[in-house]
Design goal:
single chain, about 230 residues, mainly beta, seven-stranded parallel sheet, 16 strands, elongated
């Protein structure tokens, strides 16, 4: 797991970026955040080069960086911090993430199909034109996300949380949503067709309550899922 070091500027609450040896390996030493580091261009290059040159990335703290036009397919990330990062045109097919943090990030035009994620957090993220199709997204934190034109089709979302998410033109077709929480979500043109919605959890005051059956089609009241 990454070390949660605060920026060396005493009044700054931002997370410090990872430190690197001369051989471009991560080591545990306090550092500055992206706003206060003396040479941001150097640290960005070190982080980009580290990701490009390693198939397994452990404990990387890259909070606040922008990632564009990168292919990280088939890589493995463990305990990394990408909070407040921006991801544009990223290819991350068949990528593994364990206990990583992407909170309050922005994702645009990214392919994350067939990814494997467990105990990873995307809380407060914005997704636009993102593909998670065919992925294992187990016990994920998707609370407060805003998703436009995003596909979770054919994915396993077991025991994940989408509390207070805003979902627009987003699909959950043929998904396992057992014990998945959709409390207080705002949904516009969202499909759950062929998903096991009876085993998902929705709010009693959900404006869409009762509108879907177990195949994501119009149905009778009480068929959408468990209520809390």
């Amino acid at each position: 797991m990454f070390v949660e070091n605060k920026c060396l500027v005493h009044y700054c609450s931002n997370q410090a970026l990872s430190s690197f040896t001369e051989n471009n390996e991560i080591f545990d030493q306090r550092n500055y955040c992206l706003d206060h580091i003396s040479d941001p261009g150097k640290i960005k290059k070190q982080i980009y080069d580290y990701i490009s040159s390693h198939d397994k990335i452990i404990g990387l703290n890259a909070s606040g960086l922008v990632f564009k036009n990168m292919d990280i397919s088939n890589k493995k990330f463990f305990g990394c911090n990408f909070s407040h990062c921006t991801f544009e045109n990223i290819h991350a097919s068949d990528t593994l993430f364990r206990m990583c943090i992407f909170d309050f990030g922005n994702f645009n035009d990214c392919n994350m199909t067939h990814s494997n994620m467990i105990f990873t957090s995307f809380s407060g993220c914005n997704f636009s034109n993102i593909l998670f199709t065919g992925s294992d997204l187990i016990q994920m934190n998707m609370n407060g996300i805003t998703a436009h034109q995003t596909s979770f089709d054919d994915s396993d979302l077991f025991n994940s949380r989408f509390i207070r998410a805003t979902l627009i033109n987003t699909s959950f077709r043929n998904c396992n949503v057992k014990k998945t929480l959709f409390n207080h979500t705002t949904r516009t043109n969202v499909s759950f067709k062929m998903s096991n919605t009876r085993e998902a959890i929705f709010s009693k005051d959900d404006p869409e309550f009762g509108s879907l059956d177990n195949n994501g089609e119009p149905g009778e009241k009480d068929t959408i899922g468990a209520l809390i």
